[in-house]
Every structure is written in structure tokens, then in C-alpha cells.
Amino acid sequence: MHVPGAQSASYDNYPALATSQLSFIGFDPSSDVELLHYSPKTVNSSTQSTKTGGTSENNGTEIQHTTGSSVSTTNSYGANIQLGMQGEVPTGDVGGHFDHSDTTEHSQSDLTGTTHNLGVDAAASTTVTIKDWASFARVGESTQSVLWCWGQESPWNVIRYHDKITDSANDIALPDHIAALLADNKVVTPPSELAMFGIDFTSQARWIITSKTGRQFDSALTIRCEPTIFLGTHGLGKDNTTYAKLKKTARDFPATDCVIDSLAQLAIAPIGTGVALTGAVNFLVSPSFSGPNSGIPGATNASPGSRSFVSSSNEVLVAASKEFADDMSVKIDAETSPTLRIIFKVDERHDNVNLALRCWKSGAANVSVLISTSGKNSPAGPKSFWRHVDWGEGGGVTKSLLSIDLRNRDYFSDECCDFLYFGTNVVDMKFHSTTGEAVTLFLRALAVG
User: Is the pTM for the entire model greater than 0.70?
Assistant: First the structure.
């Protein structure tokens, strides 16, 4: 990093160019691949244009009609007295008056008017930002890969001027106007601030993979990221001429592979995020599918002939070993112990979670079920325990239900437990005959919620 001090004769080994390719390989060729989004797209300048416009219009009509009448009555009274003397004889006069009048008035008025207002407004603005670095993206022909190239544009446009001089191993051929931006006879110009203080290269792409047959399927997939970084150096040579070099970093950045064993497992949603609060699988109705791992990475039932089911709410993935028949019945004896794996995701830590399996057995022997939870980060850790199926067909749903508490927050209950952890949880079931004699187990439905 450059710090204030004496003038540098050169700037060495700063990030100048980087490439990154994101692609995926090893997917099922019977599927279609579509690139939905990638970021960043080609960016070497930012132009933002804003335009606003609006019109307003107001029309109004007013009609006023007034009708009225008034009646007034007026009464007036008066009195007068006159006294006098004529000789010794008094004289006088007394008088009075009364007036009455009635006045009636009638009035009527009509008023009609209209108003009309019209307004127009408009505004426009444009801002342009020139960037020191540019990013360019290229999509592969099959849309299975995206290549990004980041490079410094100012003062040295590394993306445009990166060809080497013929007689030099690392010196870059620069036109005079670019060389003048890097150094003159006395001063060496530093690279861009992003090159000196650091830059973050972040890219992302989103694909959707669908089956050409329109049915559910599973596939393994490897996402590969291949980064490459080149370092730039420029300064003044012995004869005060400007030079520039570009070399691949000595630090090795090998391709990084992210292996996804099962797309079906990656695609399931957490329990309770769908319309229903329970992820249920009806083995007689839900379509089954198969894949290289039948949706189950590393499972003992990941063998040819195994099948997987997904709940209609896309919250529970179930894989059955190859011993199960099409109607999800299986014969168990001393040498045959079929397996069932249930995968689901949990994104909370408080709700109770129960696993219910509707099943029954046919035969004299009973069925013992060894249940193992993944729970490596759960409060209880990995856990294994036994349950038993000792009932036959009939008796209603409640009498043919194997119920298992995976999380019970009732601390006053003997069934209080927590075998789950935040994220993907796996529950394995292995079925045994209690006596070793042949017995048939029938599975009809499974629910987690």
C-alpha cells in the first residue's frame, strides 16, 4: 500500500487484471440448463437517466338553488298628556295611538358554475460515473459457464493494452499517451486507488436445471470456480523512459470445486415454509424417481434400483432402498434389512417436530426399527434408538401409526428431546425382523412436521 513519503520510482506488483470463470460439470445430460441471471454484467461506466412526467386535470360543476320566505310583524304604541290652567279652571287633554303592520317577503335564487384546471409537469436528469476498474462478462455457448474479467482502466487500461513487447519477457507495449499518464521524466503516477488499497471481486450466477421428460429427477453436480490474478508494475527506467510490466501472481489459485451430491436434496425447502405446515409423502400417489445417488449422498441405500420421493410441498425427501417393491412393501428376514432415509431442513429452533410413518406388518414376527439421527450439532448430538411395529392392517390410522418425536419442548414430559439442528437433518431407518423369521412390512405414508 502506498503511504506518504518520498516519491516512488516505481509501483510494483499491484492488482491490475483478474479473471474468474464459474461453470458446472458432471450433471445429468438428460436435463436442460438455463442461465437465469449473472452478476456483474459488463460495467465500465455507470449512466443513470431519470425522467419524470405527469399531467393533472380537474373538472368541477357547481349548482346552487335557494328558496325562502320571511314574515315580519310590527306593532307601535304611543300616549300623550297635556295639562294647563285657564283662570282658576284647570284644563287638560289625554290621548294615545296604536299602529300594526305585517310584512311578507319571498326570495328565490339559482347559481350554476363550472371549473376546469389542467396542469403538465416534466423533469429529466442524467448522471454519468466513470469507473477506475471495469468488469466484462462472457457467457459460454452452452450457457453452462460465465467468465468475468476485471481490469484497471485508469490510468493504464490493462484490458486494452496488455500485449508484450516482442524482445521483452514482461514489458508491455504502451502508446505514448498511456505512457505519459503513468510517468514523465520526474514523477511516476500511482495506479488507481482500488489497485493500491484493495478491491473485492464478487461474481454470481444462477441456473435452473429441468428434466427434458418433465418428471422429477436427481443428479450430482460440480460447480467449478477458476480464478486468475495478474499483477502490474510501472515506473521509470534508467534512461527515464516509462515501462510497464504484467505478470501472473506467484501465488497459486487452483480451481475450486463445490460438489453437490444431490440436486434433489439441495432443492427442498425448510419445513413449514410451504402452504401446509407438514411435509407429507404418500408412497402410493407421489411419483418416484432415481438418480446416481437416489438423492442421498453417502447413504447405504444409494444403489441401483433405489428410489426417492419428494413431498408435494417440496419439504421432505425420502429414499427407499432397492428391496422395496412398487407398492412400498418389503420382505424382511434374517438376511434382508431394508433402509429408509428421510431428509428435511429446519430453519428455526423452537417448534416441536414429529416424524410419523403409517405402516403395518404381515406375519408372525414383529419388525424392529433402528432410528438414527444426524444431529451432529443438535443439543443431544447423534442419537440412535429403537421402535417396534407389532400391529397388522386395520384398526384405523391411529393404530397403524409409528410416531417419533424429533423435538419436544415439553420439559415436564418423558418424551422431551431435541435431535435436530439448524439446517439439513437426516433420519435413517433400518428395518429388522425381531426373530429373524420372514415378515412383510407395508409403508403407505410419511410426514414430518
Answer: no
